Amino acid sequence: MRDDRITLAHGGGGKAMRDLIEAVFTAVFQPPGMEDQARLMTDALQEPGARLAFTTDSFVVDPVEFPGGDIGTIAVCGTVNDLAVGGARPLWLSAAFIIEEGCEVALLRRIVASMAAEAAAAGVQIVTGDTKVVGRGSADKVFVTTAGVGVIAPGLDLAAAAIRPGDVAIVNGVLGDHGAAILAARGDMALSSDIRSDCRGLGHLMQAVLAAAPGTRAARDATRGGLASALNEMAEAAGLGIEIDEAALPLRAEVKGMCEILGLDPLYLANEGTLVVFVPEAEAEAALAAMRADPAGRGAAIVGRATQAPPGRVTMRTSFGGQRLVDMLVGEQLPRIC
Fold first, then answer.
1. Sequential DSSP letters for 102-157
2. Is 0.85 surpassed by the pTM of this model?
3. What's the CATH number of domain 160-325, 3.40.50.620, 3.30.450.20, 3.90.1150.10, 3.90.650.10?
4. What is the pLDDT of residues 55-88, one digit of tens each?
5. pLDDT digits over 285-298, tens only?
C-alpha cells in the first residue's frame, strides 16, 4: 500500500479497500481464514456446563495516542477486561474501524500494532473485523469497536447480587491513572505530568484470583465513572451497603495533586487496567497475594467491605475519621476517555 492517508476510495469495496485491509490489518492480525465470518472451536466448550460469554464495546478516545497506550490498546484491553470480570477466559475478538478520510496510514499501523501486541499478551486472537471510511469531519481520525467471546468454566457464576455482608473489596492497583493521563495529554490546561495510562488486560490476573479464592463473589472493571461508579452499581445490584476506607485507596501523589489543582475527585477518574473484586473475608488474603504475584496487581490493596446497611449506598471513612457518601458520577467529569 503506497498511500500515506486514507481516502474515500479505501472504503469503496474495490482494490484500494482490499489493499488497505491486507496491508494494514490482516497482515498483522493474521486471522484464521478469510471468509465473511470466523469459525471458532475450543476444547473448553466440551466441558459439561461451560458457557460462552460475549461482550462488545466502542472506543472514541481523544487523543487517540497518549502516554501508556492508544485507542488500539484500550480497544483490546477494555473488551478483554469486560470478559475477565465475569469469570470468562477471553479467547476471541472482532475489530471494526470507522476511519476518517485523511487519517494517516502510519497512525493506523501504530494502532493495529498496539492491538496485536495486547491481544498476544492477553492470549486472545483477533479473528474477524470490518473497516468503513467516512468523510472529513464525520469522525475524529479513527473509532474502534471490538466484540469479545470467552468461556466461563462450569460452576462459576460471578454476579454482584452474590455479594454478602462482610465480603472484602480488593482493587488490583492504583486508581485514576488513565483519566489523569488523558487529561494531561489533551493539552487543554498548562499541566505537565509523567502519569501514564494503566491500560492492560486483566484476564490472567482474574484467573489467578479465581484459583486462589474460589469463593469469589463478583468483580467489575472501574472504567468510565471510576471506582465510585463501579461500587455504586455493585451495591445497588447486591442490595447492600459498601464502605471503603480513604486511607487504604492506592493513589499516586501525582494523581492526587492533579485532582487537587483541578477540583476533581480521583474516585471518579477513569481506569483501563483496574478492577475491584469482592471475596469472602476468609479468602481475602489469598486473593490479595494472587493479585500481587501478577505484574498487573502489584499495587493491590483491600479498600473496603460490604455491609448490611445502608442498602444500595457507598460510603467512605475519611482520613479525618468521618464518613461521606460516595455517589454515582453525575454528568461528565472527563469527555472522551475511552
1. T-BHHHHHHHHHHHHHHHHHHT-EEEEEEEEEE-TTSSSSEEEEEEEEEEEPTT--
2. yes
3. 3.90.650.10
4. 999 999 999 999 999 999 999 999 999 999 999 9
5. 999 999 999 999 99
Closest CA to 204 of 88, 303, 117: 88
Cis peptide before 154 (omega within 30 of 0): no
Largest CA distance in the chain: 67
155: Cα within 13 Å, side-chain hemisphere: 5
- Residue 257 one-letter amino acid: G
What digits encode the pLDDT tens for the residues 9-22? 999 889 999 999 99
Kindly state which CATH superfamily the domain 8-152 is placed in.
PurM-like, N-terminal domain (3.30.1330.10)
